[in-house]
Amino acid sequence: MKSFFSDFKKFITRGNVLDMAVGVIVGGAFTAIVTALNKSILTPFIGYLFGTKDLKSLYYPLPGAEALEGQVDAYGNQLYSSAIYYGEFIQAVIDFLMIALLLFTIVKIFQWIRKASEKAAEKLKKKEEPVVESEPVVEEPVEPKPTTEELLTEIRDLLAAKNNQETK
To answer: What does the DSSP assignment read for 44-100?
Structure first.
């Protein structure tokens, strides 16, 4: 039993759980925003196309259903003993599709940002690392250094040649 609670403590204290909790809270707030968008903007527009105030008010009384005297729903429609309220289902589907579409869009934007930042990081990394292109190294033959005697002999010969030219 102790290992269960120690494992649970490790699970709770990991960073992933905190991130998940924040995600759930933000997701709840996001759902509220999308639901408000649907109720305030989309539902009245679609309801207008169906000729009703709200999609949730759409229903179909089943054959043999009796009208409940003096009872109306929140939309002013007559209540029946048995009816199919398909408008609520349509509204739930629209809510789901809107949330899915917006989440998909947000995920795509984050993926695009991540790819762009990875490309920028790669460019910076390439700029930081000097590009060394290996060229074939051609070794020139190294001539041995002349000795002091050879240099003095060469100087003597040059001076003698110069004197011979001046005397001519």
So the answer is: HHHHHHHTSS-GGG--EEPTTPPEEEEEE-TTSPEEESSEE-HHHHHHHHHHHHHHH
